[in-house]
Amino acid sequence: MGSGKSTLGKKLANKIGVTFYDTDDVLEEKFGKSIAEFFNEFGEKAFREEEKKIIQRIADFNGVIATGGGLPCFDDNMSQLKQNGTVIYLKRPAKELFHRLVNAKEERPKIKELNSEELMIYIEELLAEREPFYMQADIIADRENQTVERLLETLK
Question: What whole-number distance in Å separates Cα of residue 56 and Cα of residue 45?
């Protein structure tokens, strides 16, 4: 959440001439609801089930896929992603994610009610919980390696 997956993913897809998919956008289009509305109406379990269906459906397409931050951590999603392509983890420090998210809380259902201190704690705890999944990525791109050019070099 807030690592720049969609922004960098679009640039990367454009550079290599393939389609860009954002699993959140696909879900919103399918249901005609924002992620926040979907969460409120159907809950996290239904959201995770739909995410899994989306990656199964678009896995065979040639493109760049930006997933929600939790998607690789549920079911066997990370294995599915790795089986169908190269997985890149955009690694960012918790403090940087905090600064990116603090003013964008409204559209993010899991953090919109948190004050600044709670948000920082939430980010640190979430990263600690998800890091074992993220570290299974084929490429771990720290902040300095999160440019289209550097990622293209790494992918060669």
Answer: 17
Identify the bridge partners of residue 30 per DSSP, sorted by sequence position: none
What average pLDDT does range 84-111 have in this prediction?
A: 86
Radius of gyration from C-alpha coordinates of the chain: 15
How do residues 33-48 score in pLDDT, each as one tens digit?
998 889 889 998 999 9
- Residue 156 confidence (pLDDT) above 80: no
Whole-model pTM: value is: 0.89
Cα dist. 91→37, 73, 96 in Å? Answer: 28, 15, 10
Beta bridge partners of 122: none
**Domains of the chain (ranges, CATH numbers):** 5-145 (3.40.50.300)
The count of other CB atoms within 10 Å of the CB of residue 26 is 18
